[in-house]
Structure formats: C-alpha cells, structure tokens
Amino acid sequence: MDSRTKIILGKTLSFKKNPMINGLEDSYSFIDTGAVFIKNGLIEKVLDSQGLSLPDDVEIIDYKENLILAGFVDAHLHYPQTAIINSWGRRLIDWLNEYTFPEEGRFHNLDYASEIASRYFDISLSHGVTTSVSYGTIHSESVDAFFLEARARGLRALTGKTCMDRNAPSYLCDTAQVSYDQSKALIEKWHGVDRLGYVITPRFSPTSTLEQLDALGALWKEYPDCLMQTHIGEQPEEVKWVKELFPKSKDYLDTYEKSGLLGPKSVFGHGIYLTDREKDRIKEVKASIVHCPTSNTFIGSGLFDMKGLSLAGQKIGLATDIGGGSSFSMLKVMAAAYEISQLRGHALHPADLLWLSTRGSAESIHLDKKIGNLAPGMEADILVLDLHSTTAISQRAKQSKNIWELVFPTIMMGDDRAIKDVFIKGEQWSPKLK
Ligand code: GUN
Ligand code: ZN
Fold it and tell me: Are residues 293 and 407 in the same domain?
C-alpha cells in the first residue's frame, strides 16, 4: 500500500449527525476550499486549504469546484440480477418467478458468476458506489465470485448465500441443513478477510420453511458478528402470503423473531407495509430498515414512510435493490426517495438524501466507524462529484445560492457522468467502462 500522504482539494462535505433528526445546522460540515489528507488508505484530516501551506513532497490533486464526499453505500442489492435489470412489468412474485429465478439459476457456474460480479462492480463503481451489500444466489459460487472480484478491487463489500428451501424452482432450493452447512463454510472462508463481510441471508419468509429459518437463527447465534439480511413488508400480496404460510406467527416480523433472526444486526429490505407493532419492535431491538425507492416504484410496491420512521428514531439505509431497482445510480435512488417522500407530503432536504446514501447507509450496516463519512480515521473510500456534469444540471447549478441548491440538481438529474472520480482506500479507481 502507498504509505505517502496524498491531498485532495475541492469542496468538502462531511456529516456530524443525522440531519433528519438533529436539524440541518449542527449536522454537517461544508468547506468551500477543503483539503482531504489521506495516509495509508485512511483519511487523516479534513481542513480548509485557505491559508494552509501545503507540503510540496506529496501528491496533490486539485478538484477545484467539484464536491468531495464519502463514497456511496448501497445497503441492499442483488448483484446476480445485474443482467436482468429493467425486466418489464409484473408484481414482485411474478417478477421473481419469470425473470429473477431463471437468471439466478445460472450462478452455479463460477465463471458466469465471476463475469457478472466483475460487471456489477465496474458498473457500480462508475456510479460512485464504494460499498455494496448484496444478496448472492443459493450457490456458494455466487458468494466466492463476488468476494473475489471485490477483493481484486480492494473494496469493502458484503454478501451471503441466499437461502431458500420452498416456493422456488427446485434448482434454487437447498435444505435447512445444507443452507446451514454452506453458509457456515462461507463465513469461515470469507468473513473478515480483507474488507469482506459475510451476511446470513434467508431470502424472505415465503421461500424458507420454519426449519430453515431456525437453522439460520442457530447459525447467527454462533456468528453474532455477521449481519443478517432479508426482506419484509414489500408488497401487500407478499404480506398476505406470509400470513397464510405462518399461521402461528403474530405478523411478518414475528416469523423472523421466532427463529432468532431479529437483533441489532438485522437489516430488513423495504419495510413499506409494517404494522405499528412491527415498527416498534424493529426500532426497539435497534435493527435497520433499508429504503429501496427505485425498486418500490419500478415493481409498484408503494411509498415508504421516511419521515415517520426517521423521526421515530428508526435506523434507515438507502439502496438500489438491483435488479428490482431500475438504476445502478445512487443519485437516481436519492431522486426517487425525494419524490416518494414528496408524495407523502414531506420534502427531504438534499442533506437528508446525502446522509442516507453515505453515513446513514453505513450506520444501517454497522460500518459507520469505518466508512460513509469524510472524517479522520475513516477508510478513504471517497467520491468526487462533478456538479456541472450536463448542460441542464450546470445551468441550474449556476443559479444556486448555497451548497444545497448547488448539489440538488445533480441529485435530481445526475447519473454516472457526475462521478468525476472514485477513491478506494485512498487509491484512485480507473474506470474501464468510461
Ligand atoms: N423479495 C424476495 N426476493 C426479492 C428480490 O430478489 N427482489 C425484491 N425486490 N424483493 C424480493
Ligand atoms: Zn431485495
């Protein structure tokens, strides 16, 4: 690793607190002429470069009017669905059966899994995502491929074998015992290697028997350091189906809790259709919910209650939910989050959106001590945003009166053209796709 100091100059944005609950003023730090010092892959300090005499024996990259912030953290996605993103039409269960399951069936082949994992990372990095929390498929090969490709790029990345033992094609089903054994072997092989983390991953209650959920709950007890990810309350039909499949459970959340799959390190995708009891209980145990707005509009799932949940103190992350989500861009995800919240009568501030896509997402996966912010000691996974990436964006940005007006056109209209540069642990990533 390069142990020399590197300094990157530009406008810098860091977060001190969650602006959705603490108000804007005390929550962020913006420096118009910032300097980020990077050493040994970590952020050493963030200072104002005005009046600072910079050493002349270090590498200095001057991004001038561009905005430097933490890389995006995509807290819920399915990398094996990369190649079937934007499959037309249908509701969740039909979409899974028609498009998703046949594609996921291909991931027993390590070569194919590696090709898609490599493609996924190249695309997501070109959109400024520096940490991904993905579902694999039922196949251990899908997890190996993802971790190998992440490691080759030096990325912090998380995934797990997606466990199913019913209500899916036989080629995608294992058993309670096999899911336990294979997940355990993968944890032993990968968890904590470099910057990789294993996530215990029952897909969702409809595709697991009680026996499988119990087996994964037992596994989690053995490896409490791992996250546990699954889906909850995405569509009304799904909630109704869970009621039929688990008549003895109080509600959807209870199907997980009964099997030991509810705790502070539970990460629940979607969470649109939750009862008051479920909301209270998720908050009580300090588990996370990940908002997937482009997916919730694309699959027609519904309008997430960002204001209500965040004001209640719920930990919330933000995600693309590839391939249910229609874009790899966290900018598009933020734009969709804004519009969904507007439809519920609440205008999320640009600071709220940037918090959610960086430090908020990092908190939701218990990595906020390491990633998600431009602050001393954090891993130098950094994003440089061009706030004038298109004519349409630039002409609006030129009218701005402050940083928030300046960045908002990029949030709403931006795409991968706005990603000026990405640093992975302090090293500039060179895009193959551009
Ligand atoms: N629920 C269970 N599996 C999935 C999936 O792959 N995508 C989405 N959006 N929801 C799910
Ligand atoms: Zn999902």
Answer: no
